[in-house]
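User: Can you help me understand a structure? I only have the sequence.
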Amino acid sequence: MSLFSGNTLRRWTSKLLARDTVFRAVQQGLHSSLDARRAVDRNAERVWSLLDVPSRREIERLKDDIDELDETLAEIQQRLNRLRRGLRRRG
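Assistant: Let's start by predicting it. Here is the structure, written out as tokens:
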């Protein structure tokens, strides 16, 4: 049986993280990783902006706008169809 199987690994990890110094080191590592990720994201957005390429956020906003426009057009089409049916019945 492996030293790192199921419950053994969980117990070992729990004991290790229970040590304040280890927990702080892991926490600091995670914070540093998140900070680095944010910096990479900001720099990538700057590069895309300089190249005049839309960011993912801008594309998502455009998609949302297009979806909203599509829904509005579908509503208008339904209203027009109802008006046409009403006019046919009268006429």
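Now, to help you interpret it: The chain has a mean pLDDT of 89. The chain has two domains: 1-53, 55-91. Let me know which part you'd like to focus on.
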